[in-house]
Amino acid sequence: MRLKDKILIGYLAMVLLLVAMGVLGLLAMRSIQGEFESALSRTYPVIESLQHLRLQANRVTLGIVGERPLTARAGQSEALHALQAAASRYHALVRRTFPDEREMAARIRLEAEALASDLRDLAQPDVALAVGDRRLLRERSQRHLEALESLVDQAMAGERAELGEHRQEVLAHATRARLRLMALGAVAAVLALVGGWWLTRRITRPVERLREATEQVGRGEFDARVRDSGHDELNVLAESFDHMTAELAETVVSRDDLEAVVEAISDGLLVVSPEGVIERANSAMRVMCHGALEGPLAGRSVEEVFECGEGRAHLLGDYFLQEGFECTIRSDEETPRRVSVTATMIRGGDGIRGWVMLVRDRRGRSAVPGAGHARQLAGPEAIREHLATRLSVLEWRGRNVGVLVIGLERRGELEQMLGQQVCEGLVARIAERIRTVLRPDDAVADWSEESLAVVLEDVASPRDMVSIGDTLVAALDQPFLIGAHEVRLTVSVGMSCAPQHGQQAEVLLACAETALRCVRADGTRRCMMYAESGGRGSTRRVRSGR
């Protein structure tokens, strides 16, 4: 469930609780009001009938037996009839609504009928009563009236007491309803607090874990994971963060590993600030400057370390330097060390953040017997794939890649003289001697039955290919000992260089083979560079190494 849906459901639950409380309160108040109205509807008619009965009894009695009769003789009969009707109505109400008060109602009715009987005897005009009898009837009527009023008072007191009981009961019901509503409100408040706490916790806990994981990633701990469960937006964010850290863990090395890689680079590496001040130098760069500069390299400007030639005033500029720039390390020596520098700009959101400079010693390739620097590859396909890989990074590295095809002129004669097995061992020794002249990032492999192929990883300039060819020829001119015999070889070297002669492996190898055929046809040179002029496929011979 999405987070906004959870929040919406929480608000809806709160609204429903409030509505439920309001509805329950309204129903409770209506129930209490109904009970009270029911009690009033049963009690008030009885009380009214009692009051009416008393009023009727007093009016009839005063109207008939008073010193001055208030009721005319024509209306006395109707008054007596109304008195009896009032008593009968009260009796009927009691029997219908309060069956337990029928005895009191019967007594009141009897007293009313007795009063009405005495008053009727007094009110008869055609009956002559003695003075004593009339006085006796009056006294008896007065007693019946007093008894009737006393009974009415008792009945009304009972009705009022019952009405008070109903009122107390209604108030008790109202109190209980109020307590229920308060309890429901408390439960709603608790539920709201618990729901708010749960929702807040549900939001803040993943955010807190995400913050902690972010801090771990900032410290280089790329195995940090949030691992949240659910299907809302926070879970999607946690899954995205875990996916990001997983990819970082696969693609980013730790700072210690990076430090080890920087120190293991065989070429010099400098990190330069935007102002041109060296901030970091690896061990290879420190070894390269040993004896030429005293003190640490960090803190020096680039101009203090390198001397630019060819009229160039500054080594660094506001562009991406992709081509190795030749210069020398400043020193007091008669022959300063020539190096090749490639600077790569580090850009940031606020502009240039500095440069990374790769420094390579131009004096590198020389015959060092037994060193075994270069890589030995297995056959033409391996050297072709290796060359294609080197060419794929040629554009952004800004360096040259050299290709040499070394022809063994007497391979057939040697096989006849020494045998095929011994000759193959000799070719392996030739390849091993070639490896001693090359750098660790160069490679050599068998190219054909009478030739070897060499790929030079990093060449500062095509002009350097000639000196490299000379070095190889000089190294292979040294005799090979096979048993008690010395074997001398005659070799020819054809050379090509990328990107000058192309940027495809097949093209460069074909150019080197063409240069090798030109060397053999010339008969006077030992190594030759392929140079393209005019149209496609044409070749011309350039400077020879020997």
In short:
This protein is of the alpha+beta class. It has three domains: 184 residues; 95 residues, 2-Layer Sandwich (Beta-Lactamase); 167 residues, Reverse transcriptase/Diguanylate cyclase domain (Alpha-Beta Plaits, 2-Layer Sandwich). 57% of the residues lie in helices and 16% in strands.
Given the C-alpha coordinates, what overall shape results?
A: rod-shaped
Overall pLDDT confidence: 77
Find the count of extended strands (DSSP E, 2+ residues): 15
Distance between the termini: 81 Å
Strand content: 15-25%
Q: For the CA atoms, what is the radius of gyration?
A: 61 Å
Q: Into which percent range does the helicity of residues fall? A: 55-70%
Instruction: Sketch the topology as an H/E string, one letter per element.
Output: HHHHHHEEHHEEEEEHHEHHEEHEEEHEE
Strand order of the largest sheet: 7-9-10-8-13-14-15
Give me the secondary-structure category: alpha+beta
